[in-house]
Amino acid sequence: MDKRVRIIGIPLDLGQAKRGVNMGPAALRYAGLADRLAGLGYAVRDSGDLAVPIRESLCDQSGCDFLPAIREVNQAAYEAGREAIEDGDIPVFLGGDHSLAIGTIGGITHREPAGVIWIDAHGDFNTPQTTPSGNIHGMPLATLVGDGYPELVDVGRIGTKIDPRDVVLIGIRDLDNRERNRLNSSGIKVYTMRDIDERGISEIVHKALVRLEHRKRIHVSLDVDSLDPMVAPGVGTAIPGGLTYREAQLIMEIIADTGRLSSLDMVEINPILDERNKTAQVTVELAASLFGKSIL
Is residue 296 part of a domain? Predict the structure, then answer.
């Protein structure tokens, strides 16, 4: 059976305030993502980028309203993900900010559920009522389980897209107070950086996979700010004390061993804040490990 990857760029920068994350897809392409995956035996098709409005075009004298455009982009991401899965491809979504996951994860679960491993410094579990910043890139996971702006909750199909029991968060180290309370009562399994420090990343990932063993497919949603800023400086919300390169690579290697990877988000790379495209290069290497690169 052919192994096919479909690259889908989503240069969405409307879910947060810092400029530059819309250049993430180009940075990943420039870092050689397609060639790296092709070298591992995959047939790679790049579908180009989904259309995203320019921020300034959404503003007038009364202010800026990004919500309709975020909904529209996520609707397109939903359809792109659904189509890729139905065609038997593995969609690789290049962000852009993490609000795009509302559409990508919705789309890849259109026909059947999937387990989700969400690798992030943040919980992304705020709602419009709990968010301190108002930034929608802090809300996608909450939206996917049915809590958020109705126009985003209902992207693609009406209502909840994933069951909290199908989600594991890894690498968490920065939560808002009300978000923390919501996560504690959500049913989502959360592994913080303290858990990783005390128990080791191998144990954490294997436990995550046991929790998700009832799902035959795994979607990985990788926010690059999960990595320590020393490893990945080109992110908009850098928080010290993150994953080392080797910890992140081992996560990918263990998931690859299952043969259950079905789709991937790579989000929040900001080339303006980077050092000679270091963050995109690191992310491409992590993707290679997730798609089967091995030492021996």
Answer: no
Q: Which two tokens stand for residue 153?
A: 């909750």
Cα–Cα distance between 75 and 157 in angstroms, integer?
10
| Burial annotation 161-188 (CB, 10 A radius, 16+ → b, else e) | bbbbbbbbbbbbbbbbeebeebbeebeb
pLDDT tens profile 32-82 = 999 999 999 999 999 999 999 999 999 988 888 999 999 999 999 999 999
3-class secondary structure per residue, 43-80: EEEEEEECCCCCHHHHEECCEECCHHHHHHHHHHHHHH
12: closest CA among 219, 228, 222, 269? 269
* CA atoms within 13 Å, Cβ hemisphere of 228: 13
The span from the CA of 185 to the CA of 45, in Å, is: 41
Predicted confidence (pLDDT) per residue in 183-207, tens digit: 999 999 999 999 999 999 999 999 9
CATH number at residue 211: 3.40.800.10
3-state secondary structure at position 247: helix
Residue 8 CA: distances (Å) to CA of 116, 276, 283: 19, 23, 16
pTM: 0.97
Q: Is 48 left (phi over 0), alpha (psi -120 to 50) or beta?
A: left
Lookup: tokens for 164: 């909290």
Counted domains in the chain? 1
Q: Does 295 fall in a domain? A: no
58 located within any domain: yes
What is the set of active-site residues?
Answer: 98, 120, 122, 124, 137, 223, 225, 268
Domain of residue 285: give its range. Answer: 4-290
Residue 169 included in any domain = yes
